[in-house]
Amino acid sequence: MAEFVGAVDQGTTSTRFMIFDHSGGVVGRHQLEHEQILPRAGWVEHNPVEIWERASAVMQSALNSSGLAASDLVALGITNQRETAVVWDRRSGRPLYNAIVWQDMRTDRIASALDRDGRGDIIRRKAGLPPATYFSGGKIQWILENVDGAREAAERGDAIFGTTDTWLLWNLTGGTSGGVHVTDPTNASRTMLMDLETLEWDDELLGFFGIPRQMLPEIAPSSYPQGYGRTLATGPLAGEVPITGNLGDQQAATVGQVCFAPGEAKNTYGTGNFMLLNTGTELVRSTAGLLTTVAYQFADEPVVYALEGSIAVTGSAIQWLRDQLGIISGASQSESLARQVEDNGGVYFVPAFSGLFAPYWRSDARGAIVGLSRFNTNAHLARATLEAICYQSRDVAEAMESDSGMHLEVLKVDGGVTANELCMQIQADVLGVPVIRPVVAETTALGAAYAAGLAVGFWKNTDELRTNWNESRRWLPEWSPEQRDTGYARWKKAVTRTLDWVDVD
Length: 505
Description:
The chain has 505 residues and is α+β, with helices and mostly antiparallel strands. It has 16 helices and 23 strands. The protein is globular.
């Protein structure tokens, strides 16, 4: 009898497969990184074929290491880096171009043109998003305009688009031999092409980008009892496992953190930071620089919405200290180095490497380190990097309170950076609220598993999922209100130094 649920977590830097039992405990896992392709400044790409190969490998390895077979899985869920765009030929299965990653900046002229002539306001109203390089619509347009034969193939119906969930689903269910072309509302809501109210592709929005409708996948619920399809009888999950869950990574983490009630929020600390606030079935339109997005849609229940603050560079700023500056040898060393000083020594680091996302949305910004004196050391810079993660999260929390009228009482956290206990203490200090990390930190994969398991009755309801959530560690604020206010005021001042650095047409 099948007693487990599997989840593919296709992220920005790696792909992993995790197997969960009914209590939400991890019984198997494997993870592999993939190449970050950087053709020129501001461009970030991935090889979709490599991603599929890595996904296949981690599924097989996780099953082998746990002594399980595909037949032991009652269902499969998928979660993914959301805005990363893949365009491929449905007949050959070959990508027309590398996947253009969510961090990529090449579409800045497309985004700024949308705002200049008023189309941006229509995108905000219908899609809940500001025109930005972050989202998929401009990436598809770039491929259609710059890759030889891409537009002609799209108009013939041969070239199709998907975020990486759709690419994996298509390959898992047969690829060129009947693979399903489908996504869910959480991923579709990140394209600038879906109407948030109807949950359908919008012809006016498609027209803004010149995208043929036949390129786009079907939109099905995030937890889908009918199933998107089944894995092949041969392949990494041989045995026809039903694929019944699909969520963009940050929405999956929201489900994994069981933020099912309006007012509940989580913050995921990865390459970037992503804070989501559940607003229930009410579609709250942001006036403070946040995104209005779909949190999840379970079966035929009403869609649940969220406000999101997306921050481009947080954990990757620590990687920058390691890879570009060489002042640490590993991510964990950022904590020990930062602990060598009591405070930031007046140094503030705004890591606007690819502009600023929420709540500023300034593609003209670039990174800046300010407040330096000869007194400062690499330890001060390490601490300023951790503080930058936390201050950017406060920027988003303040915007959420402005938009929703809901005051954050506690923040649930997950993601790799939460292993840095100093960073989490600083986060509690900067926000002035308790910060809580769950026992199962892999909430993204867990959320995808929950969506898949709910669809087949492995878990009966969300109340059952709540009983699985357990607290691992809690950090309480230690700063005085004066320290908190002074630090934040200086952070805001530092942000102003990053603006108007790049000319955007």
